[in-house]
Amino acid sequence: MARTKPGRGAVSTYEFLETLHTGPRVTVQRVRERTGGGTVLLRIPNILGHAADLAAMDEEEEILRILGEEVAPLDTAAAGLDVPRALVTPDPGGRILSRLIPAGGLSPERVIDIALALAEAIRALHQGRVIHKGIAA
Description:
Elements: E1 14-22, E2 26-33, E3 39-45, H1 51-66, E4 72-73, H2 76-79, E5 87-90, H3 97-100, H4 108-127
Antiparallel strand pairs: 1-2, 2-3, 3-5, 4-5
């Protein structure tokens, strides 16, 4: 199966800004709407037409809706995207952690600050009865 080619020019409705994440199933890109809108996140399956990738996107859409997030399936043909399915979600802003880490690494104090913030976020997930996977040390 062909793989998508995220990056500049991948989506004609949107102006590509940056790839935020490339995982085994989904690539997340920050894009700007060409019609003058703001930035949004575009979630694209990595392998075109792969049933597991499409099922994972269905699950992600359902979870986002349960969490009260705005999420919309994208009309991929109208957007000029050669994939069977994609999702658009609001861009919460922020930066990618790996790009913030200095060449020498983080201080132990900073690592503890980040770990505590992540632990609090996971606690909030558990309190909300959200089941998650893929969170590792």
